[in-house]
Amino acid sequence: FPSHDSPLYPADMSWQDKANCRGVDTNIFYLEQGLTKENDEKKVIYKELCGKCVVRSKCLSFAQINQIEHGVWGGLTPRERKKHASRVRVRVGLPKEQSARVTAVA
To answer: Which of 23, 43, 48, 53 has the most CB atoms around its CB within 10 Å?
Structure first.
């Protein structure tokens, strides 16, 4: 994570206290390489947790602003977050290097 002095690191992380995943084994948010039965099982769990989470958008924004490249954040895998950022970038007409930061405010 960025240092707490970073302008990208939010001073208020209290949104995490409201997350559906609070207290859940974080292993479910980290997938193995390739298609596996374990990944399929994890996907069912995290999609259920994140799909109903009241802080999903804050979680996704945090990951995208801080360019976190591992794990599921806001219900999206790193690959899904990249696609999401690209769609937002195209929608608002920004260069590729700005897509991650813009996603959080779009």
So the answer is: 53
Q: Alpha-carbon distance 2 to 9, whole Å?
A: 6
48 φ, ψ to 5°? -65, -50
Place of tokens 């996704």: 60
* Other CB atoms within 10 Å distance of the CB of residue 6: 11
- Euclidean distance between CA atoms 22 and 48, whole angstroms: 14
Measured distance CA(95)–CA(71) in Å, rounded = 25
Rounded Cα distance between 66 and 23, Å, is 22
Q: What is the DSSP letter of 31?
A: P
Q: DSSP state, 38?
A: H
Phi, psi of 43 (to 5 degrees): -60, -40
**Six-digit token string for 48:** 């259920």
Q: How many residues does the chain have?
A: 106
Q: Which of 82, 44, 90 is nearest to 63 (CA)?
A: 82
